[in-house]
Design goal:
Helices cover about 60% and strands about 5% of the residues. It is mostly helical. It folds into 2 domains: about 5-75, Multidrug-efflux Transporter Regulator, Chain: A, Domain 2 (Orthogonal Bundle), CATH 1.10.1660.10; about 80-140. Strands 1-2 form a two-stranded antiparallel ribbon. The longest helix is centred in the last third of the chain and has 34 residues, at about 80-115.
Amino acid sequence: MGDECPIGEVARRTGLKVPTIRYYEQIGLLPPLPRSDGNRRRYRDSDIRRLVFVRHARELGFEVEAIRTLLELQDQPEGSCREIDALVGEHLEAVDSKIQRLVALRGELQHMLACCRGGRVAECRVIESISNCEAPAKLKSFAS
């Protein structure tokens, strides 16, 4: 394969969809791309590596702005990784918080299900729980 390839090949190699690749270019996660004589985007190996990085960061749950920061820091290989560590630490705290809320939600749903006797809807404890109970504070964040 040459130094540059079309977007369809990039999609195949990165596991991203063509509209997603174009979106990442539009929001500046990719540098401006060279164009062919027919004005088609031509992606270099460095662009493909960058897109794989972005895809993996998204899979890890990083928001676009955090990925932008990671990319900027990655482009400064001699710099300190202190800011990267701080960013990942913040993300880890958010993940831990979300896990705690999910565990609480799971417990509440298990409790609701355990109270159900499998009778008629008019007597359903699940419906009653949802209708009459105020959600515990740790579950309220899922409602918004």
